[in-house]
Amino acid sequence: MTETRRAPTGAAVLQSRVTRAITEAVLDELAERGYGRLSMEAVARRAGVGKSALYRRWPAKRDMVVTVISEFSVPRAEVPDTGSLRGDLLATLHAIHEWLAHPRTATILPDLTAEAARNPDLAEAMRDAVGEPRRALGAATLRRAVERGELPSDLDVELALDLVAAPIYWRANVRGVPVTAAYLEDLAEHLLRALGAAVPRR
């Protein structure tokens, strides 16, 4: 007998709407005011909810911000298994660029990075909830390539992850130079060589 799953109704729908409203409010407040000036009161007011709705979900501002940024950022690191290292690498590079170029990321990330440099607790929370999960997804992609024989078995995965992400961040956020599709194609080719990939070149 096939079980029919009911669509959520009533309180469940309301709860989901409240959560979405809070999430949007957190992102908007971060973009407009930055982490230092963000308050639970301002988020509740923008979301149209009472502060109790926030405190039922998170004990403090840091927990709220980290959860929302994680839910916004980690899924954007997920890429499909294309069946080849080059395809996976290109998909990863495009995903990194799209995340960094997103208007919210472009505004919020520099502020959070600066704040984390002054706030070790925030830095650790962001690393655990955002940085490490995103890197874990990237590591899985690289390990698939190792299993397919496209990358050496002694690959330094941590170093490889830095090599993949750093050029895009440097070009876009430090140099302020456009990241084009042609640049990502060229970057993929350079990374294949740097990683010692055993795949045919174009």
Protein described:
Helix 1 (11-33) crosses helix 4, helix 5 (85-101) runs antiparallel to helix 7 and helix 6 (103-118) packs across helix 7. Helix content is 71%, strand content 0%. The protein has 202 residues and is mostly helical. It has two domains: 11-57, Arc Repressor Mutant, subunit A; 71-194, Tetracycline Repressor, domain 2 (Orthogonal Bundle), CATH 1.10.357. It has helices at residues 11-33, 40-47, 51-55, 61-73, 85-101, 103-118, 120-147, 157-175, 181-194. It has nine helices and no strands. The longest helix has 28 residues, at 120-147. 24% of the residues are buried. The termini are far apart. The protein is elongated, with a radius of gyration of 20 Å.
Secondary structure blueprint with pairings:
Blueprint: H1 11-33, H2 40-47, H3 51-55, H4 61-73, H5 85-101, H6 103-118, H7 120-147, H8 157-175, H9 181-194
Helix pairs in contact: 1-2, 1-4, 4-7, 5-7, 5-8, 5-9, 6-7, 7-8
Strand content: under 5%
- Cα end-to-end separation: 52 Å
CATH architecture of the largest domain: Orthogonal Bundle
CATH class membership of the largest domain: Mainly Alpha
Low-confidence stretches: none
Return Rg in Å.
20 Å
Q: Could you name the CATH topology of the largest domain?
A: Tetracycline Repressor, domain 2
Q: Strand pairing plus helix content: what structural class?
A: mainly alpha
Let me know the largest β-sheet.
none
Q: In the CATH hierarchy, what is the superfamily of the largest domain?
A: Tetracycline Repressor, domain 2
Question: Could you say which overall geometry the principal axes of the C-alpha atoms support?
Answer: elongated
**What's the β-strand tally?**
0
Secondary-structure element pattern, one letter each = HHHHHHHHH
